[in-house]
Design goal:
The complex is a heterodimer of chains A (249) and B (285). By secondary structure, chain A is mostly helical. Chain A has one domain: MetI-like fold. Helices cover 77% and strands 2% of the residues of chain A. Chain A has a two-stranded antiparallel sheet. Chain A is globular. Chain B is mainly alpha-helical and 285 residues long. Chain B has a single domain, classed as MetI-like (MetI-like fold), CATH 1.10.3720.10. In chain B, 72% of the residues lie in helices and 3% in strands. Classes of the chains: A mainly alpha (249), B mainly alpha (285). Chains A and B meet through helix 4, helix 5, helix 6, helix 7 and helix 8 of A and helix 1, helix 2, helix 5, helix 8 and helix 10 of B.
Chain lengths: 249, 285
């Protein structure tokens, strides 16, 4: 089957000049698949971390201390109103240069965090700032009386948040969260700028070697439309699974 | 003992009505511009201390930024120009696309929908590459050669996602109007086109403004992507300034911090204004 696909694309190239190297050149194929793997890895890790940031940040925003609330607010406002690419550069080049680094056996500088890790850090913070806002709006949709009822049943403040407020809030803010996570998946392409070998980077390498910009562009767009489609499908499944009959809008 | 808020109780107080809480939950942040400036100052101070340890001969980061500020700000103005042009182009293309999604013709509607979804779900950077590589560098129009410099191609690249987002805004706004408006217009013998232009769209303008401004803010922040495809805008200039100053690693954080600050000062007021309009018009973007 694979052999047949490879042959078909090779003959397509010979007859029409449409050069889809990734389907018959094993080197290009490996590079491209590794790129998709890196995109998925970046997205999944950043999505998980950003959700954790969102949950903790939204909880801290209900804090009694004005200072804690102020810090979270500054964080959200700054990350929402500055370009994600500049954030990535600021973290990777700016902070990366200030952090201590070690030197390996042959004397090359080994930074504390690699470019992949910095990409995850900045993408998570970027999406996390949006998630804090999203979760906050969800939490505010839970009425005060429900929390009081939980307190009356002997829940601690954290317990009420964990077992009562959060499950309800999550269901309210899932559509907005869905939107933000799709956005995060699309933002992972920015990691290209700091040479993280994700899909766009792999494609750029392939079209530089094989001179097939148009074909790779089409494949690239198709891959991202597919990835976004899968993410949206998973989120809708999750939304349906979480649905409580008679609850919600 | 805490007391619950009086009034506004429903039969089953599991969840407040979303429409009821919507105006309340958007709270104007108490932050002002000077918070950002103060934070930036703190970053600068911190990095100038770090710089002071390396030796007295090197200029402090603040001095470097002041020295190059005219150049960097010119780059920033170019970013703003890119954002305004691509927003204009995207809106001009997006409004008809949004209206096509509301067409009575099933095929036209489906095509417009697929087109919009495609450009909405593709990453902005990929679309930018798409425009940079696949738009020719010149067109021949009736014997006259129209050159297409890189920055025009970048405007096209940014206008594509703007177009799709504006189309969604238009569609959403028209569909959010109550159907009674259409029926009332029909009973007054308006044609479909007249209803759309004279009754529906004027009412939608207000609803479309906040999300449209949101898109503008996003496109402004995305113009820095142009530096990846080799256009001389602020981020490219920042890297060049860093090289011109001898590539000192301690300069990178202040320089990129300055870029962050510029965008923050521009985008944050837009964001505040959007939130205020949303509250006034009672719409959720």
């Amino acid at each position: 089957m694979l052999q047949w696909i490879a042959e078909w694309f090779r003959s397509l190239y010979e007859t029409t000049g449409l050069n889809f190297t990734i389907f018959y050149d094993p080197y290009d194929a490996k590079q491209f698949i590794a790129g998709i793997g890196m995109t998925i890895y970046l997205s999944v890790v950043s999505i998980l971390i950003s959700i954790v940031i969102g949950v903790i940040g939204a909880w801290l925003q209900m804090s009694r201390f004005a200072l804690v609330r102020g810090v979270i607010e500054v964080f959200v406002v700054i990350f929402r109103n500055t370009p994600p690419l500049v954030q990535i550069f600021f973290f990777y080049f700016g902070l990366g240069a200030l952090l201590p680094s070690s030197y390996n056996d042959i004397g090359l500088r080994e930074p504390l965090l690699t470019n992949v890790q910095w990409a995850i850090v900045s993408l998570s913070l970027f999406a996390g700032a949006f998630n804090i806002e999203i979760f906050r709006s969800g939490i505010q949709a839970v009425p005060r009386t429900t929390i009081e009822a939980a307190e009356a049943l002997g829940y601690t403040q954290l317990g009420a948040y964990r077992y009562v407020v959060l499950p309800l809030a999550l269901r309210v803010c899932l559509p907005a969260l869905n939107n933000n996570l799709v956005n995060l998946l699309k933002t992972t392409t920015l990691a290209y700028a700091i040479a993280v070998p994700e899909t766009l980077y792999a494609s750029a390498q392939i079209w530089a070697q094989s001179q097939n910009v148009t074909e790779m562009m089409c494949v690239l767009l198709a891959v991202f439309v597919l990835l976004v489609g899968v993410l949206v499908w998973i989120m809708h499944r999750w939304e349906r699974a979480l649905r409580i009959p008679g609850f919600g809008r | 003992m805490k007391t619950g808020t009086p009034g506004k109780t429903t039969d089953l107080p599991v969840l407040l009505d979303v429409a009821q809480i919507a105006p309340k939950n958007i709270r104007l942040p108490r932050l002002r511009l000077w918070h950002g400036v103060a934070l930036f100052g703190a970053v600068l101070l911190f990095s100038s201390i770090a710089g002071a340890q390396t030796g007295p001969a090197e200029a402090s980061p603040i001095a470097v930024i002041f020295k190059w500020m005219p150049l960097l700000l010119r780059g920033f103005l170019f970013n703003l120009l890119l954002s305004v042009l691509s927003m204009a182009l995207g809106t001009i293309l997006g409004v008809p696309l949004g209206l096509m999604q509301l067409s009575n013709l099933r095929t036209l509607r489906a095509c417009a929908w697929a087109f919009t979804q495609f450009f909405r779900n593709a990453p902005w950077l990929v679309l930018l590459f798409f425009a940079m590589y696949l738009v020719p560098y010149q067109f021949e129009l009736g014997g006259v050669i129209v050159p297409f410099p890189d920055w025009v191609k970048a405007v096209i690249g940014f206008a594509l996602p703007v177009m799709a987002n504006v189309a969604e805004i238009v569609r959403g706004a028209v569909q959010s109007l109550p159907g009674g408006q259409w029926e009332a217009a029909e009973s007054l013998a308006f044609t479909r086109r007249q209803t759309m232009w004279m009754i529906i769209l004027p009412q939608c303008l207000q609803r479309m403004l906040p999300p449209w401004m949101n898109v503008y803010s996003i496109i402004t922040m995305s113009t820095v992507l142009a530096s990846i495809v080799g256009i001389n805008e602020m981020l490219t200039l920042t890297a060049q300034v860093h090289n011109a100053e001898g590539g000192r690693p301690d300069l990178l954080a202040p320089l990129y911090g300055f870029a962050l600050l510029c965008f923050f000062i521009y985008c944050y007021p837009i964001n505040l204004w959007t939130v205020r309009l949303e509250r006034r018009f009672h719409v959720k973007s």
